[in-house]
Amino acid sequence: MPAVEVSVTGLYVYPVKSTRGIARARVALTPSGFEWDRQWMIVSAAGVFLSQRTHPQLARIVPQVTAEALVLNAPGLGALSVPLDSGGARMAVRIWDDACFGIDQGSAAHEWVSEAVGEAVRLIRVSPDMGRIANPKFAGATPAPIGFPDGYPVLVCNEASLADLNQRLPECIPMERFRPNLVLRGLPAWAEDHIDTLSLGPVQLRLVKPCTRCTIPSIDQQSGERSTDPAPALKQFRYSRTLRGVMFGENAVIVRGSGEAIERGGAVTASYEAAGRVPA
Fold first, then answer.
1. pLDDT, tens only, 121-146
2. Is 251 within the bounds of a domain?
3. Residues 93 and 173 in one domain
4. What is the C-alpha to C-alpha distance for residues 125 and 69, in angstroms, rounded to an integer?
5. Which residue, among 58, 133, 46, 126, has the nearest Cα to 94 in the 3D structure?
6. In this structure, how many other beta carbons lie within 10 angstroms of the beta carbon of residue 109?
7. Are residues 257 and 186 in the same domain?
8. Owning domain of residue 111
9. Is 236 exposed, middle or buried (0-12, 13-18, 19+ CB in 10 A)?
10. Are residues 190 and 265 in the same domain?
11. Same domain as 117, residue 44
12. For residue range 204-220, what is the model confidence (pLDDT) as tens digits?
């Protein structure tokens, strides 16, 4: 199938893993993904990451990155400002099966996030020497560095796929439920299954693996409350026996373009591969 021209309609960054996302008009690309994406996370006292799967109230924490600080807001709390140049103790942390190190963000951050979550937790920042990479089984032999996302640098979603899914649901859900980094318009529904690369000017991304979905898309990202769950509908036609999950969106790695920027409204060339990646 020949390459086709599509456009970027959404750019999103999630500075603190599993908290509210930030819509951007323009984002810089770094070796590990979008600038500031999943550079912090909240962990238990044992260093295990928290997510909306078990703590849906994380959706009510709203991050902002200024020139000087990470600023967090949550209902009923004053703003927390964590300087970008703050140091801290090195702390062992775990994300799924990955054991790595992060930088503790201090006692004030500990008290604030503990009050916001309702239990004793800590705020951790990516360590410069963390060395975490995407799974080479899918990402390929060239190491793809990542911060604190579940597994890959960039998540790509297709507006037409959501429109098709919404026709199968009792009520429509917004794209923010799927927490994408990059949203595309102009593709047929589910065309992302068969795309090899996306070229955005000097930036090129390679789509490497369908994203299997958990319970987070059932959570209203504004209220943090459980809502319409798309999983039963997805299971009817988007279930992978190999990946053992329902699929929506595509995980991508960076081929080139670190240091460049992507803009909302920009043109994208989608190049199709000979065969789709969707496992049977």
1. 999 999 988 889 999 999 999 999 99
2. yes
3. no
4. 12
5. 46
6. 24
7. yes
8. 40-126
9. exposed
10. yes
11. yes
12. 999 999 999 999 999 99
